[in-house]
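Repro:
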Amino acid sequence: MTLHAAFARLTVVAALALLAPSAHAAGPISVEIVDIGIYVVNSGESTLQPDGIVDSRVTEICHLATTVTIPAKLNISFGFRYRVKGSPGTVRPLTVVKHFPVEVSPPGAPKPFSSFSRTIAAAPGVIRYAGYTMDHDWEILPGTWVFQIFDGGRKLAEKRFTIVEGAPIPAPANNSQNCFKMSGTLPYTPVKKSA
């Protein structure tokens, strides 16, 4: 190969490298935990996934109590709200992984599993919710549940919750500042609660 051909090939390789998308081209992102604990969640559209888990689009959320000890009861929602931090104007796929304390077999699931994940589009500045609502008897699983958020292979956040039989259900706080409308593309909007 001549020197001219080698230089031409090197130029093409360098140009392709500059054009290739980079996972961190927009800069690194991080996650800031806003609050954690038990929530009152209002949901809109729900979809039964092939793994037997129902995904629901949360339309409104109220932070009820700050705790990692969760009562083992039906209709309890728990998790955490988080803010994605990074370069403005970029949307990144994040993976939210939820681990059960034991292997489960939801109705309709093809096989038992002990964790599941969902990929979401996250933009810096937006506050999101990573949570779970125990809607069915099979979901009331005492023990340690772990929720994690990943950017590719990099863990951004991890929170552990202990589901306990007989734990008291906290009384609702009469504070409308802890209630928010949810949006997939905009930051949370505070909800005005009537007295």
